[in-house]
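Re: beginner question about structure tokens

> Can someone show what the tokenized structure looks like for a real chain? I only ever see the sequence side.

Sure, here's an example I had lying around. Input first:
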Amino acid sequence: MNRRQNAIIEIITKYEIEKQEELVDKLVELGFTATQATVSRDIKQLGLVKMHGTKKKFRYTQVKYTTDGISVKFGNLFKESVLSIQTAGNMIVIRTVTGGANSAAAFLDKQEFEQILGTIAGDDCIFAVASTQEAATEIARTLKSFF
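And the corresponding structure tokens:
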């Protein structure tokens, strides 16, 4: 982790940052050279996700991972945000509370299911494409076990 990324962690810990532009502004205030593209890469590398804020609608936060790649906090976030899990052919459709799809999809991606070809998260819904219908059924069953 470089100095700018350390500063990003400090900033999101101290302030509720909702947008990348806000993060760029805070970094510039601290004397860093940063662009939206740079911050976007840092967000991805740091594994930051958006969660509901207390002052703002959403805020960036960092999820800490244990040795197996999943934190209890992140697993609880998945459990609390998911409303339903269904399959349709080789697709898995996951409904979440409003604003919960991004964090739930990040949890899903961290599971590293080899049979998932890709995921797309909206505001309250995630679509995951599995390699086969059988794989989709098995993944859905596994995800339901997190409840």
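Each token stands for a local structural state, so reading them left to right follows the chain. The longest strand covers residues 82-88.
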